[in-house]
Amino acid sequence: MTSDASPMPGGNLPTLPVKRVVRPTPSIPDHEVVRQIGSGAYGEVWLARSLTGAWRAVKIVWREDFEDERTFNREFEGILQYEPIARNHPGLVHILHVGRHDQDSPFYYYVMELGDDARTGVHITPDEYIPRTLQTDKKFSGNKPLPLDYCLEVGSQLAHALLYLHSKNLTHRDIKPANVIFVNGRPKLADIGLVAHLDQRSFVGTEGFIPPDGPGTRRADVYALAKVLYEISTGKDRMDFPELPDDLPEGTVRKKWQAFNTIICQAAEPRVEECAIDSAEELAEKIDALRGYEVPSRFRLHKKKKRRKLRRTLQLLAAAVAGAFTAYWGALWLNSSQHLPEEPAADVRQDPHASAPEEESRTGYVLVTSSPAGASVYDADGNYLDETPYGPIELPSGASVAYTIKKSGFADKEEAGTVKGGSTLALGGVLKEYHPPTDSQPWKDTEGVTYLPAETRHVAQGPLTAALFNKFLKEDQQKGNYQMKREQTEPGHPEKDVALLTQDGITAYLAWLNKKCEREGLLGKEFSINADPLPQTSGNTDGHSAYVLNVTRVFQVPITVTTNPPGASVFFNNRLIGRTPIEEYVNQVPYVIEIKLPGHATMRRRGLDPQDLYLSLQLEPDKSVIFGSPWTNSLGMQLAPVGGNALVMSHEVRVKDFQQFLKATGRKAPARPGFPQGENHPVVNVSRQDARAFAQWLTNKERAQGLIDQHDSYRLPRDEEWSSWVRLTDEKGSSPYEKTLPHENSREVFPWGYSWPPPDKTGNFADQSALIYLPSSRVIVGYEDGQPYTAPVKTFPPNHLGLYDLEGNVMEWVDDSYGGPESLPIRNYGVARGGSYLSFRPKQLTTSIRTPLPENTRDDALGFRLILSSDRPAVPTAP
């Protein structure tokens, strides 16, 4: 890259470079240098690993490759000046560190972010690493035209990067597909030689990418980028310009493709006097207009030309037509689980022809729609999929999906969900018109605050008021304890009082306001509302400041987080970006960083600007949950791991546990049973609604205590989960009703095996001690357990998972409805599993027993236990 006026890195290369010799592996501080992966006109590129384990590219520039010391030093000074420039735009490869070695065989070096692997993305295998560039993308596509949305995205990002570079009085001089690399899936302009193969040399451009009027100018860079876009959009070689491919897209995409090709032809016009687009600013404007984004004023190189206001008549017409589109909704999701009690009524099983057991649905569907239709759909990795309506697409039951819906003139819409077997997950909806800040025009946020254009940003007309901050406090979902002081500005007008806030307070307010503006289409991911503190005008404000809000374009900056012990999950504004130790680029916006490690206290840091943030934290052990290991919760209840992110209470909820819930919530106590109970007996006479309310209370309680995460929650177990705990893995049917129906080779199985009666003291059933209140016909002949009513939990031996009383003591609510044919009166009943102290017949004690009950049922033999599960997000592979 070179300056129009003075040389910059790579701008004054030696005309007679010294012949290269084989050199030893260079030594770079705090990095393990692995192997050479490329070379440029005056240096080499090496693959290296930092102390935190992050892969980096290191450019080595040797003194002996220059004819004199003065030129070598000038190049080094140039890269020192370019280092902060490179880090200030997401479309440039970031230089992270510059250093110099002046001993034997002197050289200087600079450490850069490493491009993705062409085949494996962010997963780097050192011995097989090949950088992903536009050149490799072309190659792997068979040199065919790449998708239009891909081309527009690449063109926009590179044009804005070039615009920023030109605003710093620099030119690139060698833009070509091989010099555009991808970092975390984003295209970036690379320094000359960064991704060149070992046998390549490129000094001041490459044939076909240089205009007839010569290289090294802004116009030459724009010309070269246009030729790059020609190659990827047509699949042809730059020397074929302006020939078109034989097969052009059809329908509305064809018109958009032709408009894009017109932009390319205007920028790649070889005759200077005929060239309609000769600046990066104009190229970025044209592409963004085609994509529906307004060009920011941040790096304009010339005064903005007068332009006609564009009325989106066609878009409004499309919206009206698409508004009549009815989303496709698919099959019914069958509820699961349940069984019949003591002796199920005969009519529950009668007429097997009324509804044949349905096959368990192993797949479902996803349908993505939008109004207006014709929006582009991208997956979670940013890959273009299709236009809306997209689908229905068949996927396995339980699959998690996430999509971003984009359309010119509308705000991006992010949608996510989980596929359920036998049904269609419908995503999408009405798109919000996109109204971000534009040049020379005032802009209003969702709260009615006006922002006026001021150089590179829009600035609010006055400080944040106490009235607006109080509105935030009322709507704040996290219920933070944010303190505010008031400063009176105009007596008699309290609505104009200024809010004096701590940094925590203003950060929380900005997060709330940014989210609201995004939802309403006023901001996109490329803009952010920030705040500047005002100088103190009064006495002691005790750490509180007044703030003026502003809207700026978002850039990415590096942060580093290390912890002891390592492996903690790092959340940046509620988005999981990886595990420690981590070096990552994040948006330069007000932030809240959370560091979470199971079994350790969560740590939080807030701020207005994460630029070069470095955190090295010692995590303190606590009593929080660790999934996969036994755990004791805040009530002293032991929970056992049952696979995945799930723990189940090893015993039923006790009387003393439920009493804490009643005391904390003020709910009415359930009726006392007709027998005495101690505090360690299972609570009874609770409905399913009561059980769910207890689960919600316990979830909130332990989240507040920091014992469980916001993604963790207590709930009733599902029927299929309960079955797995008693080793029922081959049940037929999808609903509890269907699983009770007899099938070929079905056989009654008890928790203790196949024999009857059960061995003594197997569990709490209707035994001989119950003869004090039960007739002999309703007890198990010859069986002794010594407990006539409910027994203290954990009185009898646990099963193979360490779970107590699944077979007896009290029946337990599960979360499913009973199901069955439409004609079945009890199909919407709740379900209880297991036997109780009243069970005496073999059928009542089989592992498959399900009792259908109205969910408001309260009974002396009915209780519950809970499962603690989590939907904590997975660590991203390509943040």
Automatic annotation (TrEMBL):
<keyword id="KW-0547">Nucleotide-binding</keyword>
<dbReference type="Pfam" id="PF08308">
    <property type="entry name" value="PEGA"/>
</dbReference>
<dbReference type="InterPro" id="IPR051043">
    <property type="entry name" value="Sulfatase_Mod_Factor_Kinase"/>
</dbReference>
<dbReference type="InterPro" id="IPR000719">
    <property type="entry name" value="Prot_kinase_dom"/>
</dbReference>
<feature type="domain" description="Protein kinase">
    <location>
        <begin position="31"/>
        <end position="310"/>
    </location>
</feature>
<protein>
    <recommendedName>
        <fullName>Protein kinase domain-containing protein</fullName>
    </recommendedName>
</protein>
<dbReference type="GO" id="GO:0004672">
    <property type="term" value="F:protein kinase activity"/>
</dbReference>
<feature type="compositionally biased region" description="Basic and acidic residues">
    <location>
        <begin position="343"/>
        <end position="352"/>
    </location>
</feature>
<dbReference type="InterPro" id="IPR042095">
    <property type="entry name" value="SUMF_sf"/>
</dbReference>
<dbReference type="InterPro" id="IPR017441">
    <property type="entry name" value="Protein_kinase_ATP_BS"/>
</dbReference>
<dbReference type="GO" id="GO:0120147">
    <property type="term" value="F:formylglycine-generating oxidase activity"/>
</dbReference>
<dbReference type="GO" id="GO:0005524">
    <property type="term" value="F:ATP binding"/>
</dbReference>
<dbReference type="InterPro" id="IPR011009">
    <property type="entry name" value="Kinase-like_dom_sf"/>
</dbReference>
<keyword id="KW-0067">ATP-binding</keyword>
<dbReference type="InterPro" id="IPR008271">
    <property type="entry name" value="Ser/Thr_kinase_AS"/>
</dbReference>
<feature type="binding site">
    <location>
        <position position="59"/>
    </location>
    <ligand>
        <name>ATP</name>
    </ligand>
</feature>
<dbReference type="Pfam" id="PF00069">
    <property type="entry name" value="Pkinase"/>
</dbReference>
<dbReference type="Pfam" id="PF03781">
    <property type="entry name" value="FGE-sulfatase"/>
</dbReference>
<feature type="region of interest" description="Disordered">
    <location>
        <begin position="343"/>
        <end position="365"/>
    </location>
</feature>
<dbReference type="InterPro" id="IPR016187">
    <property type="entry name" value="CTDL_fold"/>
</dbReference>
<dbReference type="InterPro" id="IPR005532">
    <property type="entry name" value="SUMF_dom"/>
</dbReference>
<dbReference type="InterPro" id="IPR013229">
    <property type="entry name" value="PEGA"/>
</dbReference>
